[in-house]
Amino acid sequence: MGVERRARATSGRLDLVPEGDVVLRTARRLHAALAGRLLEGCDLRWPSLATSDLTGYTVLEVRSVGKHLLTRMDGELPLTLHSHLRMDGSWHLHRTGSTFTGRPAEGVRAVLVTAAWTAVGHQLGMLDLVRTDQEDSLVGHLGPDLLDPSLDLEVAVDRLMADPDRQLGEALLDQRVLAGAGTLYMAESLFLTGLTPWSPVGDLASPERLVALLVRMMTQNTVRPVQSMTGDLRPGQQNYVHSRSGRPCRRCRRPVRVADIGQAPQQRPAFYCPGCQRGPAPALSRPRAGPQPHAR
């Protein structure tokens, strides 16, 4: 049982960074398999954790915070195993006693074994073990989690509007502002809002509507078999602009364009429609026609 992955074509490479909805689905599946169960085996293949053994601990819960996964356990003292998927990471579940064939063995970074299920973390981007009361050292910098049921919309809007001169795309990608959205939700929500990613935050006529839109889009995709921004689940029909550069806009038929947003080396791809979205855009943005692998 693998984690759903979303592919993103960017500047000649395939970038596979799961966003908050995918991480939440992962947390739910791991929680259903592991919560309340005793760890009968543990193998953390991470330099700083090579001597750590969680055998004998009981998994209390697995939850997501933005794009981060927290596996909370109780044993000699409460501990949290923190992981982040980054670009290539994934968690897989298989029945204990069966052979794991989901990914190459050399990429395994964590193995948690219960009597019924074994969870395998593959190519994880981050792996940390801390006391549960020290979780803030890992996720305390994050802004409001867009998928937190207790999200305070007013607080989220205040965080977004704190710097009205900042580019909208940059603000939405900054996990210290709002946690959980990446390039997919940034591009799609701004298409529906009608502003380019390079527009200043202060140009938002209704920031409350944008935050509510992000919450609704992400929440809907936590229960769908595949991510879809359009509501159409058919391959190639799920997105309005993301990973569709060079293809006709679904509304105005002008070619969708893509350009980088942010400063090197942290720049990210931003897809947009020059006909449907008003505001500034880089002069060198490009349609980049042609096939884009796994584009949606």
What do these coordinates show?
With 296 residues, this protein is of the alpha+beta class. The protein folds into 2 domains: 8-139, MutM-like, N-terminal (N-terminal domain of MutM-like DNA repair proteins, Alpha-Beta Barrel); 153-272, Helicase, Ruva Protein, domain 3 (Orthogonal Bundle). Helices cover 20% and strands 22% of the residues. The chain has a 4-stranded antiparallel beta sheet with strand order 3-8-9-7, with helices on one face. Helix 3 (153-160) crosses helix 6 and helix 5 (183-193) crosses helix 6. The longest helix has 15 residues, at 20-34. The two termini are 23 Å apart.
- Any idea of the CATH topology of the largest domain? N-terminal domain of MutM-like DNA repair proteins
Biggest sheet details: 4 strands, antiparallel
**What is the number of E strands?**
12
Order of helices and strands: EEHEEEEEEEEHHHHHEE
Q: Helical region count?
A: 6
The computed structural class is alpha+beta
